[in-house]
Amino acid sequence: MRHLLSTRDLSRDEAIQILDVAEDMADVANREVKKLPTLRGKTVINLFFEDSTRTRTSFELAAKRLSADLVNFSAKGSSVSKGESLKDTAQTLAAVGADAVVIRHASSGAPQTLATSGWIDAAVLNAGDGTHEHPTQALLDAFTMRRRLHGAASRGKSLDGLTVTIVGDILHSRVARSNVWLLDTLGATVRLVAPATLLPADISTWPVTAGFDLDDAVDADPDVVMMLRIQAERMHAAFFPNAREYSRQWGLGDERLARLRPDTMVMHPGPMNRGLEISANAADSSRSTVLEQVANGVSVRMAVLYLLLSGSAEL
Ligand code: NCD
Fold first, then answer.
1. What is the DSSP letter of 13?
2. Distance between CA 315 and CA 313 in Å, rounded?
3. Is the CB–ligand 1 distance for residue 172 below 6 Å?
4. Cys-Cys with 140: which of 61, 127, 256, 297 at CB 3.0–4.6 Å?
5. Parallel, antiparallel or unpaired: strands 265-267 and 69-74
6. At residue 77, does pLDDT exceed 80?
């Protein structure tokens, strides 16, 4: 594998290998000197056409902990805002010798275009494209689930038998899509819960079950409840009556939280709309994995950069 564009084309062995290498990387993070010389001399470019806090900084930390040189290239303040095309940007990055390009773009398929265009001969890592995919987020989510389940004995394990309920704005969520493919590959059972207006039309072809009722889903006692952000910036119509109504029907509030098992994982990729899809108590409870997800993001991104750039392991 030369690029990481989607979780859809990852085999079970490849996915487990990435998670296992991420375990090794997490061990490095616990050392006093959190740095490996592995990617010395390699150049990684963060090419972000959309805003990001967690993903951009964790790719930056990941590259730096592997001793790669990293350049942050954000669309604001670059020639992109003067109308430079993706092609010209890619050719510029090729000219300066990028070995890997981490790209986030509002258009679904932009990373695929970059990887297959021939404009640049670098590994392409999809850091979120439109509503399509966000593969490293799904990998860090799976890594977080596996660690909560198996702790130090996680290596080699899948997510066989785990039940995961993903709730909220599925329609606009690249996180949901990448999770659905990866969780299915790793053996988990996925249920989607959302208002009918926020369920995509094509989910009948997805390996999931779907419903509209969060109370039913909570009473079904899932192992993981993953809450998604309402992506207001991608909404050009009214998908639900108002925030209060959304929160009452599809929010993880204190009352629903109390009905979950003490060891049910409450996940959210961030950024959270506290009080809308998730209450402050749910976000900060011992069930919440939100900060573990952020920390694990660095280990998982180190693993992916290492596997794509070091040439020493086959993906
Ligand atoms: C997600 C994204 O950008 O797709 N955030 C993230 O990467 N942690 C989810 C979101 O924006 O809601």
1. H
2. 6
3. no
4. 297
5. unpaired
6. no
Q: Is the CB of 253 under 6 A from ligand 1?
A: no
Report the distance separating Cα 145 and Cα 163, nearest Å.
Answer: 11
Q: Whole-prediction pTM value? A: 0.96
> Is the pLDDT confidence value at 73 over 90?
no
134 lines ligand 1 (CB under 6 A): yes
Segment 43-59 mean pLDDT: 95
User: Residue 257: is its pLDDT beyond 60?
Assistant: yes
Split at pLDDT 50, 70, 90, the class of 314 is very low
Residue 137 Cα to ligand 1 midpoint, Å, equals 8
Which domains are seen in the chain, by residue range? 7-134+294-309 (3.40.50.1370), 135-293 (3.40.50.1370)
CA distances to 91, 134, 265, 290 from 140, rounded to whole Å, are 31, 10, 14, 11
Mean pLDDT of 240-266: 96
Phi, psi values for residue 242, rounded to 5°: -165, 170
Q: Record the tokens describing residue 31, joined without a space.
A: 């050392």
For the chain, give the longest Cα–Cα distance. 56
Residue type, 110: A
311: left (phi over 0), alpha (psi -120 to 50) or beta: left
Q: Is the CB of 297 under 6 A from ligand 1?
A: no
101 CA → ligand 1 middle, Å: 19
By 3-state DSSP, what share of the chain in percent is helix, strand and coil, each rounded to 5? Answer: 45, 15, 40
Per-residue pLDDT reduced to its tens digit, 132-178: 999 999 999 999 999 999 999 999 999 999 999 999 999 999 999 99
Could you say which DSSP state residue 30 is in?
A: T
Which two structure tokens, joined as six digits, stand for 97? 């010798």
* Nearest ligand 1 atom to alpha carbon 52: 3
